[in-house]
Amino acid sequence: MPKLVDHKKRKIKIAEATWKVIVNEGLEEASVRKIAKVANISVGSLRHYFSTQSELFVFSMQLVSDRVENRAKNKSYEGTPLEAMQDFLSEFLPIDMDRRIEMEVWLVFSTKTLVDPALKELSQVVYDDMHQACSMVVERLTDLGLSSPNLDKNMEIERLYALIDGMALHGILHPDRFSAEKMQATLKYHLESLCEGV
């Protein structure tokens, strides 16, 4: 009887091999041949799942987004509303090894969006999703009556997004100077600054 192959798992395995090559050797070394070797499959098998390198990169980038989104949605949040919001936003920061790998891969792919229309389209979708997450946090602070009365919600949504994005970048590029603890402390300080009497 022929062995049944779980095609979704195989595609994820290939995407994870792509991540590994990118993190260890850089995007310029992420050839189909090298990725196939790391995934322990033939080049022909890889091309069966992804006919082009761009198609592989889009799937790999989407997998990063899906994992972050699933973790954020399925997590159990505890503590005060501010603590829960900090915990939620921390899912988008490289504060542990899994999140660091995801963010590093995402940032590498982001440079490729300048020349790859398919990656650019996906990047725009994720940008909108992240913007929505920041909007949800600011709106929640307002709904709970925690935010300062003169808060400019639209401006604060943009500022929160820029803060998260910037901290993620610095956390990847300068982990020795911008640690997970510093990211968490900065995020906590910022959220408290949006609130009245906290």
How far do the termini sit from each other? Answer: 66 Å
SSE string: HHHHHHHHH
Q: Note the quaternary state here.
A: single chain
Q: How would the global form be characterised? A: elongated
Level of helix content?
Answer: over 70%
**Radius of gyration, in angstroms, nearest whole number:** 19 Å
Keywords:
0% strand; 2 domains; mainly alpha; Tetracycline Repressor, domain 2; TetR family transcriptional regulator; repressor; Arc Repressor Mutant, subunit A; 198 residues
Architecture overview:
- With 198 residues, this protein is an all-alpha fold.
- It folds into 2 domains: 1-51, Arc Repressor Mutant, subunit A (Orthogonal Bundle), CATH 1.10.10.60; 54-193, Tetracycline Repressor, domain 2 (Orthogonal Bundle).
- It has 9 helices and no strands.
- The protein has helices spanning 7-25, 32-39, 43-49, 53-74, 81-90, 97-112, 117-143, 153-173, 180-193.
- Helix 1 (7-25) crosses helix 4 and helix 8 packs antiparallel against helix 9.
- The protein is elongated.
- It starts with 6 loop residues before the first helix and ends in a 5-residue tail after the last helix.
